[in-house]
Amino acid sequence: MAKATLVSLAESLGVSRQTISNVINAPHRVKPETRLRVQSAIEQSGYRPSAAGRQLRTRRSMNLGIRMMPVVDGINGSILDRFLHALTEAAQQDGYRLTLFCADSDADEIGQYEELLNVADLDGFVLTGTHYGDDRTAWLLDNDVPFAAFGRPWSSIEDPFTSRHAWVDVDGGAGTEQATRLLIEQGHTSIGFLGWPVGSGAGDDRRAGWRRAMHHARLATKGLDIQADDGVAAGALGAERLVEAGATAVVCASDSLALGAAAKLRQLLPEQKTPVVIGFDDTPVAAAVGLSSVAQPIEDAARHIIAVLTHHLSGGRDGGDKPRKHLLLEPTLTQRTPYSFSSI
Amino acid sequence: MAKATLVSLAESLGVSRQTISNVINAPHRVKPETRLRVQSAIEQSGYRPSAAGRQLRTRRSMNLGIRMMPVVDGINGSILDRFLHALTEAAQQDGYRLTLFCADSDADEIGQYEELLNVADLDGFVLTGTHYGDDRTAWLLDNDVPFAAFGRPWSSIEDPFTSRHAWVDVDGGAGTEQATRLLIEQGHTSIGFLGWPVGSGAGDDRRAGWRRAMHHARLATKGLDIQADDGVAAGALGAERLVEAGATAVVCASDSLALGAAAKLRQLLPEQKTPVVIGFDDTPVAAAVGLSSVAQPIEDAARHIIAVLTHHLSGGRDGGDKPRKHLLLEPTLTQRTPYSFSSI
DNA sequence: TTGTAGGCGTTATCAG
DNA sequence: CTGATAACGCCTACAA
Asked: Cβ distance A222 to A269 under 8 Å?
């Protein structure tokens, strides 16, 4: 049996194709009687509207784009997996599909936007890895392209909550602050921060959280603030300098750094028993070696990103409540005992 | 300026839209002179063919589907990241896009195939996680849907190299065999295998590799073959039993198992200095703790999957060489010194 | 409430 | 080698 279309259905039912279309897109305009008749015919025939036909007419593809960032560390890849999965699931529930694309740079990404918008009629984009002076958000805003970002707009002057574009983020600073406070409660008075070079929004945010907790407890921070590129080796190196500066515990901007730091601290301060290093992202690596870590509610973030995007795309006519345009989620601290490599 | 279409271009050039279409899809049919004229006009106007229009006419979307498997361990999520990225990049180079979807089960996945085929005109699918008696491949074959699988068809009777469908896989058995041989060369005579319960294709394959190496060296395997569910804790438990059976080294079916095993062995056999545990997949976790591991050339696999799929879809008219329909890639052994948590 | 007409952008077919 | 014509399946506007 050939695939059913509006026309074939209309013929077999003795109504016009327009009526079928109305049953699908504007049921209230059709007399209940015929509506039911048509609906059951639709079900029986297994009719599914063609995306191509619809897209040609409406210039909407029900497709959302997201860029695959280049694989770097790999440790955070597992986070991406969770993020993508939640994104896809939420989009699917709202009738949207996710289209993946690659780009070498932000400029290239913008080029891809143009291309995908032109040829594939993508309805919107999900952005990740926002940073200071992000060209992409500016371009998308200028061109009235719907999008939502995972990551607030980083700017030293503008308040993110007045931003013109939708975003969802996790309050990294709150996470490191909480982590630092825990260490303070455990009696540590010299707690180092091991983060990325100043200049990255998320990194500076996490550093600020540590600093807040230290100041609040009136603890000195001099010499305890290390800037390092991400990675295990850099983490070990940084921890060494922190120990020299007197640190007995370390809060890190990533699990990679934390892993290196934990190894180094275990070596330099073997007498310590409590978890003295706290990572960020709660990756499987952290779980695997029993490292405490700040966990991001990444599935929630993904779901909200889709919610705000699809709500906007449907023009608010989707029935649901209007999702907040700017949302800062709280992370949680996953505490673990470092059984690691010595006492599983 | 409005977006250029075939019609607008044709008008401004004084030719028929069909000629423009021919320049794009069948250049050889157009007189070189007009072809050049049209081509430069295309470039100038920034014309890009509409996917919707094309799709409506050709019933092809230039879109490939891939299912997001449920997130389980997380450790292997990082592998997925690399895989997806390579897939997307290769597809993009061939003019295809990747569409993500979710499914709860294989049956559900088949339902999604139908849906995506019907509404979105997907041109083909990439399958992962093939297993014994996989319904999905059967369905796709029955319905003449193009696809390529990452993972050979597992069947006790059929030779995978005669399979009706395209696949790419990594020779896991060769990997564990190589790993086992290395340990034998290092002087170990009692080497355990820590793998998944018998019944999974990939798991049994890896087990067989270990067994081959042991038999080849005329070493006993009695009591050295452990079946455990994946995970760090199970790995530690399994290693304990292996040590009781006299094992001094362990080859594992995954990095999760290996991580647990390494911890346990370090505890039970502290005098050993050499890397006595070898994992599988070479995940960031392995890299982080200095665990040797069998590395899969996953980017190569992804590229070949796309190559074989797009070559088939283009009906072999894409100019390139015909890619092999069945391809078994060799893994490599990444050797590391277990600095782990004690000596970064 | 239902039907009719037109067109979205493309390619296939066939005639010139 | 080029052009006219006819779909592909759908939705919007308007007419009945």
From this structure: no
Domains and their CATH numbers in chain B: 6-49 (1.10.260.40), 63-170+297-329 (3.40.50.2300), 172-296 (3.40.50.2300)
Q: In B120-264, where do the E strands start and end?
A: 124-128, 147-150, 166-170, 191-195, 225-227, 249-252
The neighbour count for residue B265, using CB atoms within 10 Å, is 25
* Mean pLDDT for the stretch of residues A258-274: 83
- B contact residues 284-343, partner A, Cβ 8 Å cutoff: 284-285, 287-289, 339-343
The token duo for A193 is: 């921060």
> Smallest CA–CA separation between B66 and chain A, in Å?
10
Distances (CA, A) of A1 to A8, A46, B29, B145: 11, 11, 37, 17
CA distance A23 to A178: 54
Within 43-62 of B, beta carbons closer than 8 Å to A belong to 48-53, 55-56, 59, 61
* Residue B12 reports pLDDT greater than 90: no
pLDDT band at B275 (very low <50, low <70, confident <90, very high): low
Q: What is the pTM of this model?
A: 0.93
**Identity of the amino acid at A138:** A
* pLDDT the model gives residue B148: 98
- In this complex, the nucleotide whose C1' atom is nearest to the CA atom of residue B18 is D3
